[in-house]
Structure formats: C-alpha cells, structure tokens
Design a protein that fits this description.
Elements (H helix, E strand, L loop, with lengths): L1 H6 L8 E8 L8 E9 L2 E7 L3 E5 L2 E6 L2 E5 L2 H20 L8 E6 L17 E2 L1 H4 L2 H13 L11 H11 L9 H18 L1 H8 L3 E6 L5 H14 L4 E5 L2 H10 L5 E5 L3 H8 L6 E4 L8 H10 L3 H4 L1 E7 L12 H8 L5 E5 L1 E2 L4 H11 L5 E2 L8 E5 L1 H17 L7 E5 L13 H4 L2 E3 L13 E5 L8 E10 L6 H13 L1 E10 L1
Parallel strand pairs: 3-7, 7-8, 9-13, 9-14, 10-11, 10-12, 12-13, 15-16, 17-22, 18-20, 18-21, 19-20, 21-22
Antiparallel strand pairs: 1-2, 2-3, 4-5, 5-6
Helix pairs in contact: 7-8, 14-17
Length: 505
C-alpha cells in the first residue's frame, strides 16, 4: 500500500501520506488508529485497508485468508470515525483561524473484487483489486468524489497548508512497525516473487529431462509442486519422490490428484503396489541431494518409463549440499545423472524465501550461496551469546513476548540439533513449555502449525516458517564449521522473515 501511495503522481501538488496514524480525538476510543492518512490540497482522507476476502452477513464483517477467518469492525465506520477524529484534532491546531476543508474516506480491498451495492457506501469509496492495479487513477477519482459537491466555505488547501498539516500530524503517529506487520510484508513480497518463478516452470515443462539446482530458498519445492500439477493435468501418471516423510506430508496437503503419487524413497514400493502401475510416465525428485547416490538413482531408474536415459524426469537439488546431515553426497552420481541423454540444467539464483538481513547473516557466517537477495530487508537478525542459564532466560522471554504479540503462534518454530528433551526448551518454566509442541509426522500436515513448534533441524529440511529461533548451537566462529555447516545452513535458512540465534558459550 505504501508503494502505491509513493508511486502516486499529481501535477499540481505533492500529497503526504501516513501509516498507522494515532488518533487522540477519537469518539469511541481513548486512542484510535487510522490505517493510512492522505493529506492533499483536496483535503484529508483516511484509507482503511482490509486484506483477504471480505464478507458481511448477519450484521457481522469478516475477512478470510490463508490463516482462516477473522471478525473485523465495519471498515466504513472505522474510516469515517477516524477521519472525523483527525479533523477534530486539526481544528484545535487551526483555531482561531479555522477554515473549512474537505474530508473523506474510503475502504481499500486489494485482494478481492467488490460487486455489492449498498446504502452505506458509494462505489467511489471502494478500491478493490481492479482499482488497485490503477491506484493513481482511483485516488484522483476519490478526491473528485469528495470535493465535487463541497460547501462554498470549504476551501482547497495550498501546498503550504499540506506541508503544515503534515508537520503537525507527524508527532501524533508512530513509525514503529510491529513484527507481525513486517512478517506480513515479507509474505506479500514473497508471494509476488514466487509468482515470477512460474517462468522457470514454463522452461522446465518444455524440456523432457531437467536438473534444477539452487540454494536454500530459491523455490525448488514450489517449482516441483507446480510442475507436478501441470504434468498430472496433462494425464501423466507422475511420481514425486523425496527422502523426508515430513516433506512428503507437506506436499501431500498441497497437491492431490489420482494421477500423482507422492512418496519417500523408502515408501515408493508401497505406493507403486497401491497404484497398480509397473512404471510412472514422469518422475519428479525434490530435495534430490538426499538421493544422489547410485543405489537410489538405480532404483528410481527402474520406476520410470524409459528410465533416466529416455524417460521424462525433473531432478531438484541443493547446489550447496545440505545432505551431509544424513548421507554423504556422491559427486560421481551427480555426474552420472548429468550424462543421461543431455538433460537441461536449470540454475536458480533468486532467493524467494529469506529476507536480505537473513541472507546477509547466512552468507557472512557460512560463506555459501543462497541466491540473490530480492525480498524486503526485513527485521534484523537477533543474536545472543551466553551461559545456559542466560540463554534459557532469553528463550523464555522471546517465547513469552512473541506469543503475546499479534503474530500467529503457529508462525514460530524453534530449531535445535538435538531432541527436545536435551534442548534448552526442556529447561524452560512449565508455563512456557506448555506453549510449545514438538512436530511429528501428523502435526506437520497442518499448516499453519498449531501454536509454537519445536523440531530437530534435520527433520525440518525443505520446510520453513515466518519466525525461527535457532538454539543449542555454538557460534559458527568457534565451531568446526565444516563438520557442522549443514546444521547451521539448514537451521538459519528456514526463517522467512525473522531469525533469532541463541549461541552457546
């Protein structure tokens, strides 16, 4: 929304915009808040932004998105009371030289189309997803709507008036961006960037054999899943295979089709038996670095019609090799695969998971390639070092603060190289421990997760969460990094928006 306002252009003046303006003259609240306030020569306007799908039924407003449905206040009433609260405050500032000036408000719904007429609003007061694409034009129309029939004693403001009012309002609003809002921004940025990754699916789909390689966060699992959707839509019996049962459950919740079998390498025989097939028309391998050995490759070769030489297959693997958590990567197996009838090699270099701040921390500490930073800067990576007692206290504080914030508890995951009974979590006060649940094969199927979760790092490969707290590791600078690099690499790159590192010692 800020980007849209910043990109708005007016030939006759320069409007000012504020986010989360605090309202000390609100009619029904001691202190209220306006989403976005625009100060223009055409007056003062409040824009109330509501994401997701908007619904009004039985006197209740709700918004629905990937995190479920929430009841909200009437957005038109919110915007109306907010703009009058601002006007009341400004009137105090202008008195005794009070002049009348236009005020107005609108509701912005960038994620949905608005088709409903109503007695409490005019269409000009609504910016839906269609208007949002032409936001500058819509904003000009909003100004015209509110100023067209203004009373004779309502005056357009000068640029000097706009600047003076903006300077007056500035002390009354807070620029502190809460963590949940930063997480939401990162999520929105990630969605836009991930959509750009579709071009790589188009390229892969045009080729019969593809090796797709990239670091953590470059969208390999997303591409594998989207490619699977397209192959089965074309009627191909497709096998999507990985090593992790958690990743298998994650993928199963996202793609379901009678032509698609999703299996771990150890469960493929059972899946094949249930399918009644002898071979599959197409093969997709995700987190392929875990299967880059001749035993697994020869087994997969036998499952694919035409094998690796003549069959249709897509192999996604991490070019940084995080697989030494479980097995050593066989480089000769990778070379063997690259020599199977000239496969197309598709490198992924754009990171669409982690913020720039997280990528900088990973690259600084581990000196590895995790793609070019393209998401928002995001909040700082917070690092703590101390004794066991100090870190337990810090972890307790973090969990308490984060669960008391507006973040969804399910967006927080604690990662450790050891099981929960040997980790710092076991030392937390009982009340805090009860807020944390250990992920397992069943719980990992539900996203977002239920409450704050704990996982061993090796089990969380291929997965991610908005906020990650990494514990039970020493700072990389004091460890034998080559022996433990994969733990740091996987652990640090699971965080999408915010990373906390509680280093031992």
């Amino acid at each position: 929304m800020f980007d849209m306002l910043a990109a708005s252009e007016f030939a006759d003046h320069h409007p000012k915009a504020f986010h989360s303006l605090l309202l000390t003259k609100h009619d029904s609240k001691r202190v209220g808040e306006a989403d976005f306030v625009v100060v223009s020569i055409y007056g003062i306007y409040v824009l109330e932004v509501k994401g997701g799908t908007i619904k009004y039924s039985d006197g209740k407003w709700t918004t629905s998105g990937r995190n479920g449905t929430d009841q909200i206040q009437d957005p038109f009433h919110q915007a109306n009371t907010a703009v009058h609260a601002i006007a009341n405050k400004i009137n105090d500032f202008l008195s005794p030289n009070k002049v009348r000036y236009p005020i107005g408000y609108a509701v912005v719904c960038p994620d949905t189309q608005w088709h409903c007429d109503g007695g409490e609003w005019d269409r000009e007061m609504i910016c839906d997803s269609r208007d949002f694409r032409n936001f500058n034009q819509w904003l000009k129309a909003l100004f015209e709507y509110w100023t067209l029939e203004r009373p004779n004693n309502d005056h357009l403001l000068s640029q000097e008036d706009v600047d003076a009012l903006a300077s007056y309002l500035r002390p009354d609003f807070e620029t502190i961006q809460p963590l949940f809002d930063q997480v939401r921004q990162v999520d929105q940025s990630s969605v836009r960037l991930t959509e750009e990754q579709y071009k790589f699916v188009d390229i892969a789909e045009l080729n019969k054999r593809v090796i797709c390689q990239g670091g953590a966060g470059t969208g390999k699992t997303f591409l594998a899943a989207e490619l699977a959707r397209r192959l089965v839509a074309n009627g191909l019996n497709t096998l999507l295979v990985c090593k992790s049962s958690w990743l298998r459950h994650y993928l199963t919740t996202r793609i379901q089709n009678e032509h698609l079998a999703i299996a771990t390498i150890s469960s493929v025989n059972n899946v094949l038996r249930r399918s009644g097939l002898e071979t599959f028309d197409a093969l997709i391998v995700d987190e392929g670095q875990d299967l880059l050995n001749f035993r697994d490759l020869q087994f997969l070769d036998s499952l694919l019609a035409g094998g690796f030489d003549d069959g249709q297959w897509y192999f996604f693997h991490d070019s940084n090799n995080q697989s030494n958590l479980l097995d050593e990567l066989d480089l000769t197996a990778l070379e063997w695969l690259k020599n199977r009838n000239n496969p197309t090699v598709l490198p992924l270099s754009v990171n669409c998971r982690n913020t720039s701040k997280i990528l900088e921390a990973v690259q600084r500490e581990l000196v590895c390639d995790v793609g070019s930073p393209t998401l928002a800067d995001g909040p700082d990576v917070e690092e703590y070092r101390g004794s066991k007692e100090q870190l337990v206290s810090e972890l307790n504080r973090l969990v308490s603060e984060l669960t008391s914030s507006e973040l969804l508890p399910g967006s927080i995951t604690i990662l450790s190289p050891v099981n929960i009974r040997k980790s710092l979590v076991a030392e937390l006060p009982e009340a805090t421990r009860k807020l944390i649940s250990e992920l397992d094969d069943y719980k990992v199927r539900k996203l977002p997760f239920d409450g704050v979760t704990f996982s061993q790092i090796k089990d969380f490969k291929g997965l991610e969460n908005d906020v990650v707290i990494l514990i039970d590791l020493a700072h990389p600078s004091v460890m034998n990094l080559e022996a433990n690099k994969a733990l740091y690499y996987v652990g640090m790159t699971r965080a999408r928006a915010k990373l906390y590192c509680l280093w031992k010692g």
